[in-house]
Amino acid sequence: MSRWLVTGASGMLAAELLGLLRAREESVVALTRDDLDLRDERAVRDVVAEHRPGVVVNCAAWTAVDDAETHEDEALAVNGHGARALAEACERLGALMIHPSTDYVFDGTGAEPYAEDAPTSPVNAYGRTKLAGERAVLDTLPHTGYVLRTAWLYGAAGGNFVSTIAGLEGSRPTLDVVDDQLGQPTWAGDLAARIIELAEIAPEPGIYHATCSGQASWYELAREIFTLLGADPGRIRPVSSTEFPRPAPRPAYSVLGHDRWATAGLPPMRDWREALRESKVLVSD
């Protein structure tokens, strides 16, 4: 396989992806933000030209959802303009680019899983900046650009809901968890494996929804975490999202459809419960 270049190398998804690629003894260039700031277009162009990758995976992103509400221009510089700069560098080289995105490009008012071609309507600044990045990649790389929308991502590296709930299990008698937001918990390890599969097959370019199958509320996810830890799930109490107001509104319904994988000859990603059981995120005392 071609040389890989992975941006955002210190992040949760990149950690899983780099582990899999190195286990396969692939040629990989891993770049942290200190190595490559996507806001520097000249640096992006020069680094890609220097390493001449065949596959670029853009794991670099502004992911502070609430902070983006008051720093949208800064978030756009990374999620939108930075993605465009990387796509343009890939276009010059003829490299394939895989760009993870988010369920936050939808408004969350739906009641059926969002199809890949469903109209987008983000309700917060983070979603708007990620949508700008999607469009930049697809416009610049109509033949070699892939957008993989994911959601509710968790992994062994970095902070996330699963590790947070697991950490609180031993210190709180009860936990109040939101029960009126639905989504698809997705293990970063499964997403990383799907990225590799996609690069190997190189199917029709465009948008693919890369979330684990099934659906859950945050409350249901927290109960499953407690169960796997051998704790009493009854200690988790359901509450409304109004109990936890945040600067950035969240979509109430973030379930994504997976029909497009059939064009790639791949099945949808597995059920979220199975993935959670097999992930290395949960470690019981």
Write the layout of secondary structure elements.
Blueprint: E1 4-7, H1 12-23, E2 28-31, H2 41-51, E3 55-58, H3 65-68, H4 72-93, E4 96-102, H5 125-140, E5 145-150, E6 153-154, H6 161-169, E7 175-178, E8 182-183, E9 186-187, H7 188-201, E10 206-209, E11 216-217, H8 218-228, E12 236-239, H9 261-264, H10 272-278
Parallel strand pairs: 1-2, 1-3, 3-4, 4-5, 5-10, 6-9, 7-12
Antiparallel strand pairs: 8-11
Give me some keywords for this one.
two-stranded parallel sheet, 12 strands, six-stranded parallel sheet, 10 helices, Rossmann fold, globular, 285 residues
CATH class wording: Alpha Beta
CATH homologous superfamily placement: NAD(P)-binding Rossmann-like Domain
Q: What does the main sheet amount to?
A: 6 strands, parallel
What is the average of the pLDDT values? 96
Number of DSSP E strands: 12
Shape: globular
- CATH topology category name: Rossmann fold
Series of secondary-structure elements, N-terminal to C-terminal = EHEHEHHEHEEHEEEHEEHEHH
What is the domain tally?
A: 1
Uncertain stretches of 5 or more adjacent residues: none
What class, by secondary structure content?
alpha/beta
How large is the share of residues in beta strands? 15-25%
- The amount of helix comes to 25-40%
Span of the ends, CA to CA: 41 Å
Mind telling me the C-alpha Rg? 18 Å
Strand order of the largest sheet: 2-1-3-4-5-10
Please count the helical segments.
Answer: 10
Reported CATH architecture: 3-Layer(aba) Sandwich
